[in-house]
Amino acid sequence: MQHRMKEFTMKKEAVDKLLAKQSAGTISTNGSDGYPYTVAVHFVCLDGKIYFHGLPAGEKLENIRQNPKVCFYIYKLTGIISENIEIPCKADAEYESVCIRGNASIMHDDSRKRFILGKIVEKYTPDLAASDIPDSMVSGTAVVEITPESITGKYHA
Q1: Which of 25, 98, 131, 155 has the least CB density, counted as fewest CB within 10 Å?
Q2: C-alpha atoms less than 13 angstroms from C-alpha of 117 in its C-beta half-sphere
Q3: Torsion of CA 11, 13, 120, 114, to 10 degrees
Q4: Beta-strand relationship, 92-106 and 142-156
């Protein structure tokens, strides 16, 4: 393990707090062309799993169908530490980050999808949380579940 990771590992409570409050993350999938593919997503964390939604077709979903191994990452930059530093390379970043490696699956159960989409609405547009999501929107939206294999959190302050 890297020195910084040993010294600045986030505790589970801090990881959970960052996952709850962060508004966007990135999902990295493995492309059939051998290249990684990374895209930003809105997400919720429920019962130890990550969920995000999107269009029912596209590169990330095709990649997940071919290879479910993914990396989900969030990062919060809170500042640059440069006070009393005279050499630019000695400046540092103040941040928190979480890296989740796991397996993704595309959900097919519309009742579970509706529940997850409702949680996404609660997180991002709480003023609309009481509104019904039309059946056509539920069935026409992809919802992906990530089951973590490893979760690491790191910070620097």
Answers
A1: 131
A2: 25
A3: 100
A4: antiparallel
CA distance 82 to 52: 36
Q: What is the pTM of this model?
A: 0.90
Interatomic CA distance for residues 119 and 116, integer angstroms: 5
| Consecutive H or E run containing 147 | strand 142-156
Question: What is d(CA 9, CA 79) in angstroms, rounded to the nearest whole number?
Answer: 18
Question: What's the token pair of residue 69?
Answer: 């191994």
Exposure of 92 in the CB half-sphere (CA atoms within 13 A) = 9
Give 87: exposed, middle or buried? Use CB within 10 Å, 0-12, 13-18, 19+: exposed
pLDDT tens, position by position, 26-57 = 999 999 999 999 999 999 999 999 999 999 99
Amino acid making up residue 96: E
With beta carbons less than 8 A apart as the criterion, state whether 44 and 123 touch. yes
What does the pLDDT look like over 105-132, one tens digit per residue?
Answer: 999 999 999 999 999 999 999 999 999 9
Name the H helices within 1-151: 3-7, 12-21, 59-66, 110-124, 135-139
Residues near 12 by beta carbon (within 8 Å), at least 6 away in sequence: 153
